[in-house]
Automatic annotation (TrEMBL):
Keyword Metal-binding: no
PANTHER family: CYTOPLASMIC PROTEIN, CYTOPLASMIC PROTEIN-RELATED
Coiled coil location: none
Cross-referenced InterPro entries: YjbR, YjbR-like_sf, YjbR/MT2646/Rv2570-like
GO molecular function: DNA binding
Transmembrane segments: none
The keyword DNA-binding appears for this protein: yes
Gene3D superfamilies cross-referenced by the UniProt entry: 3.90.1150.30
Protein name (record): MmcQ/YjbR family DNA-binding protein
Amino acid sequence: MTPGELRAFCLSFNAAVEDFPFDTQTSVFKVLGKMFALTNLGARPLTVNLKCDPEDAVRLRADHEGLIVPGWHMNKRHWNTVTADGPLPDRLLRELVEDSYDLVVAGLPRAERLRLDRP
């Protein structure tokens, strides 16, 4: 996946925005103020931090050794760092980004989740 494709995919989710709270290079993708993806789109290799169910995180790290590792500067139990421009299938990467978004949305207050469902 290219940096442009990753950015476009992250922004394709309902109410997703890109923010730069840390520096001008680090893109933070948020839904209603909560982060679901963090990346430096100019870095090589291209990696992205994604929220993940703790049990899935361990399994993914074992299944994709070196491509999916504990989240860099994140809670290692709930976040993975995924190499986006390597041999990992784009389909899997898209699923991981979507799962991250869904996990964050699930943690939002009910009123905010309902607001996301409105057209």
